[in-house]
Design goal:
Shape of chain A: elongated
Number of domains of chain B: 1
Shape of chain B: globular
Number of strands of chain A: 0
Order of helices and strands of chain B: EHHHHHE
Oligomer: heterodimer
Largest interface: A-B, 13 and 14 residues
Strand order of the largest sheet of chain B: 1-2
Number of helices of chain B: 5
Helix content of chain A: over 70%
Distance between the termini of chain B: 6 Å
Strand content of chain B: 15-25%
Number of helices of chain A: 6
CATH architecture of chain B: Orthogonal Bundle
Radius of gyration of chain B: 13 Å
Radius of gyration of chain A: 19 Å
Strand content of chain A: under 5%
Structural class of chain B: alpha+beta
């Protein structure tokens, strides 16, 4: 039987992956159907996605903890801590590389005057907050995925 | 030919000899989860020295009777 912590990771991974794909799809639609997106639209999208993530995570974790009350109260041991730290490291790399890439792209954008509107320029000129949120979700998915990989490897 | 050192253990046998102690009982005595005991038993996770000594203390055995560091010729 898998532990509460592993089940909790599966829940977080699935929720993050679903939210990341919905978010990615919404950003894609915004960039191609409404390229001149206002700040209000992007802020509303980020807020909706964040609230949906929090509600899903809290609700599913409450349900999971209620079904496995004893296991849920067990403190984290050294093996679980080791896996968490290793996974945090992997997620951190995705986050760092993503943020540096975003900053470089912003620098390129400010030095190049895009006169054509195509799929590349739509993405390149997308608001930085949209890209940063996408990178954050990707780093979260990487973090949960890596931790689960180590759990599965040892089972 | 190289010598690969691997950590092996007799936890499964020692549990059996200790009135068929369950993995959960051992985990509670050592302060880790049952999944960690299972991973150690299978040799898929090498515990810290502290946990390894605690396991030896639970069985009241010298450390080297519980864990061995042996070579595997490849």
């Amino acid at each position: 039987m898998i532990s509460f912590r592993e089940k909790s990771l599966w829940v977080s991974l699935l929720v993050s992956a679903v939210i990341a794909s919905i978010y990615g799809d919404s950003v894609y639609t915004l960039m191609f159907l409404q390229p001149n997106t206002s700040l209000d639209t992007t802020t509303a999208l980020i807020m909706r996605i964040t609230i949906a993530f929090i509600i899903l995570e809290v609700a599913l974790h409450i349900a999971l903890a209620m079904s496995q009350q004893e296991d849920a109260n067990t403190p984290e041991d050294e093996r679980e801590r080791y896996h968490r730290l290793t996974a945090n490291n992997a997620g951190y790399w995705v986050l760092s590389v993503g943020i540096v890439s975003c900053v470089i792209q912003q620098m390129i954008n400010s030095n190049i005057d895009f006169d054509a509107q195509n799929s590349y320029t739509n993405y390149a000129l997308a608001p930085i907050e949209l890209k940063l949120v996408l990178i954050f979700w990707l780093s979260e998915v990487t973090r949960f995925g890596t931790e689960l990989y180590y759990y599965r490897k040892e089972s | 030919m190289t010598d690969n050192y691997i950590i092996t253990n007799n936890i499964r046998t020692l549990r059996f000899l200790s009135d068929e102690m369950t993995q959960q009982e051992l985990a509670s005595k050592v302060g880790v989860t049952r999944q960690t005991v299972m991973a150690i038993e299978k040799g898929k996770y090498s515990p810290s020295l502290e946990v390894a000594f605690k396991i030896a203390l639970v069985f009241d055995k010298p450390f080297n009777e519980v864990f061995q560091y042996s070579t595997e010729n490849t």
